[in-house]
Specification:
Elements (H helix, E strand, L loop, with lengths): L57 H7 L2 H9 L18 H4 L4 H12 L10 H5 L4 H13 L6 H23 L6 H10 L2 H9 L7 H23 L8 H18 L1
């Protein structure tokens, strides 16, 4: 039997592999009636056979360069610890991941500070779109201003925010108001902003006790008015004094803690 590359003319052979599924389709080169035989891989001058070219996968490359420890983990079935997720993942901003919208919080603060109809603010957005981080920040700011050597008052103010908000929610629901606990909690928290503002100004006039007390009561009334305006929905308009009274007691208690 003669092999290719010997210079001996080979008989033409035709094999049809197209009808067989799963096999690789290839064409065999045949020698034509020429005087010079064609070179094949077996006749390479340097005696080497050309190898297929291609790209090595990243996982195979990583395993090859894993080192002794990596090969040890591969051999013992812990190779999955070396796998790296190569897919690009979009990094979500921290504020978006925590569901914190600073623009929304700023607008709600303006609604609380300017609750009068003259300013034409959409006050119902504070009630209809409640959030947690804005009220919590306001309550913490008031608690920090109330410290002055009383670190325990921080936890107590937060507790009163939750408990007092639940009492207001219970009374509003008992009177027929269609409000949720998260809505009441957000309104009560945001409406502490006037007390935060007055608490910042009070130390400047601490020498005038009467004036500082009057400023504190003004901040309390401001908070109560904002909370009553935001909290009293259509069902509670006729019963507004019954809702505002417990809110007034809650903010008076907050001011007494300060």
């Amino acid at each position: 039997m003669d092999y290719p590359g010997t210079g001996v003319k080979q008989p033409e052979v035709s094999i049809d592999l197209n009808s067989v599924d799963g096999f690789y389709s290839s064409d065999f080169q045949t020698f034509q009636n020429t005087s010079t035989p064609m070179m094949t891989g077996y006749d390479a001058p340097n005696g080497s056979i050309s190898s297929p070219t291609g790209q090595i996968s990243a996982n195979a490359y990583r395993r090859t360069n894993a080192g002794a420890a990596g090969k040890f983990m591969e051999n013992n079935g812990f190779g999955w610890l070396l796998e790296v997720n190569e897919e690009d993942q979009d990094q979500i901003p921290l504020l978006e991941e925590l569901d914190i919208d600073l623009t929304d919080i700023y607008y709600k603060i303006r609604c609380v500070l300017l609750p009068l109809p003259y300013f034409r603010m959409k006050l119902n957005i504070v009630r209809e779109s409640p959030d947690f981080w804005g009220p919590l920040a306001v309550v913490l700011a008031f608690a920090i201003l109330s410290l002055y050597g009383q670190f325990g008052v921080v936890s107590w103010i937060i507790t009163m925010w939750f408990c007092g908000g639940f009492m207001v929610y219970f009374i509003a629901r008992a009177l027929g108001g269609d409000v949720g606990y998260s809505q009441v909690l957000g309104i009560v928290g945001y409406c502490l902003i006037p007390l935060v503002v007055t608490s910042l100004v009070t130390p400047l006039i601490s020498g005038f006790r009467l004036l500082s007390n009057a400023l504190g009561m003004f901040g309390t009334v401001w908070s109560v008015y904002s909370a009553g305006t935001l909290l009293c929905v259509d069902e509670l308009q006729a019963k507004k004094p019954l809702v505002v009274y417990p809110v007034f007691l809650l903010y008076v208690y907050f001011y007494s803690l300060y």
